[in-house]
Structures are given as C-alpha cells and as structure tokens.
C-alpha cells in the first residue's frame, strides 16, 4: 500500500504521502522558516479569520449543539464541573480551529502555487 501512496503522490503533486507530511511538519521546527510563516500569517490574519469564520459557520460547527455546550459550561451548579466543561469546550474548539486552519492553509498554498505558475515575471526567492 505504501507503494501505491507513493505512486499517487508522484503522479499528482497536490497529493501527499504520510511520510511527506511528517517531513514537512518536522521542517517547521526550523525557527527561521517558522518565523517567515508567522510573518505571512500575521499579514493575512484578518482575511484568514474571515475564511475560518465562514467555514466554521457554514460547516455547522457553531450551531445549536455548540450553543448548548456553551450554556452547560456557563450555567452548571458545580464549579468544578463548569471548569471541566469550559476546558473541554476550549480544547474542542482549538482542535477544530486547527483542523479547519490546516485545510485553509493547504488551499492557500495551492492558490499561491497556481498564481506563481501563471506569472511569468515572478522570480523565485
């Protein structure tokens, strides 16, 4: 199966194997590369926030179930239970934001590659 995954990734540059993703995640440990990524994200933050907000709302992530969790966390009788509910809610929202954020990042990278490929005057840095 690993051979099939490699063949698919080689045939389609938009598909990645688990090994390629692991190597890319490992490369994020390079402080200089990560600093550049932070600069880009800081610049793009307002637009990315709008994209994330739309994706979360259109995906139904902040529908009635979410509102119920917020009410449970805010109005429980037991302070320890409220703390647990808030911690759980924050952790779930963080994971969800990361998942959607990574998907947005992948699509952003594709858009940037497409734009670079269509601009003959673009110079590699």
Question: What does this protein structure show overall?
Answer:
The protein is mostly helical and 125 residues long. The chain has one domain (30-118). Helix content is 80%, strand content 0%. The chain has helices at 2-11, 18-27, 31-58, 64-75, 79-118. Helix 3 (31-58) packs across helix 5 (79-118) and helix 4 packs antiparallel against helix 5. It is elongated. The two termini are 36 Å apart. Residues 4-10 have low confidence and may be disordered.
Number of continuous helical runs: 5
Overall, the morphology is elongated
| Helix percentage range | over 70%
Distance between the termini: 36 Å
Give the amount of beta strand, in percent: under 5%
Write a compact overview of the structure shown.
The protein has helices spanning 2-11, 18-27, 31-58, 64-75, 79-118. The chain has 125 residues and is mainly α.
Features:
125 residues; mainly alpha; 5 helices; elongated
Describe the secondary-structure layout:
Elements: H1 2-11, H2 18-27, H3 31-58, H4 64-75, H5 79-118
